[in-house]
Design a protein that fits this description.
The protein is built from eight helices and three strands. It starts with 19 loop residues before the first helix and ends with a helix. The chain is mainly α. Strands 2-1-3 form a three-stranded antiparallel β-sheet. The protein folds into two domains: about 80 residues, no CATH class; about 50 residues, RNA-binding S4 domain (Structural Genomics Hypothetical 15.5 Kd Protein In mrcA-pckA Intergenic Region, Chain A), CATH 3.10.290.10.
Length: about 180
């Protein structure tokens, strides 16, 4: 019969669908991080918006419970690997890129385990990426700071580097012989 609770969206759509500035900004983010669609950006924006709203509310309040919530918020951001956050004022400066940098897809690409962000996404979806001895097949998985060093590819996978210098060497060797 299913869960009696209603499934709600994890994001909020843009107010106006055809703003050229927003569209170009989102297209650049999609290219840079190899995202499948704009919904992934909207989800990250919603996470940032929710955390910043909580920080604003905590800055305006005082009390023992507020101090506990401040500490918990900063610990949570530190746990997911956002090191630049030391105070609540730093939380207000968070951006969407900070959260997109913590995605498994981005970290696999940045560590050189894949040649492109799209290839990193394909490796993850096909189950070739192992995080802390567990196969993770979700590209949007938020990697914790302690797990970042434990990311590796399955031993059966071989990645051929397609650097510019290697592309140039292959035709010269073939043409010179």
């Amino acid at each position: 019969m299913g869960d009696p609770r209603k499934q709600r969206r994890k994001y909020e759509r843009p107010n106006h669908p055809w703003r050229i500035e927003r569209i170009t900004e989102e297209n650049e983010l999609c290219k840079k991080y190899g995202l499948k669609n704009k919904r992934e950006i909207w989800i990250a924006k919603s996470k940032v918006r929710r955390i910043r709203r909580q920080a604003r509310n905590l800055l305006g309040s005082s009390g023992e419970e507020v101090e506990k919530e401040k500490r918990q918020l900063l610990e949570m951001l530190g746990r997911i690997g956002i090191e630049k956050v030391k105070t609540l004022d730093d939380v207000l400066e968070l951006s969407v890129e900070d959260f997109l940098e913590r995605r498994l897809q981005t970290i696999v690409f940045k560590r050189g385990l894949a040649n492109t962000p799209r290839q990193a996404r394909q490796f993850i979806v096909h189950g070739h990426v192992i995080v802390d001895d567990n196969v993770v097949n979700v590209p949007s998985y938020i990697v914790k700071g302690c797990e970042e060093d434990k990311i590796r590819l399955n031993d059966k996978i071989k990645v051929i580097s397609l650097g510019k210098e290697e592309k140039g060497k292959v035709p010269k060797a073939a043409g010179g012989a």
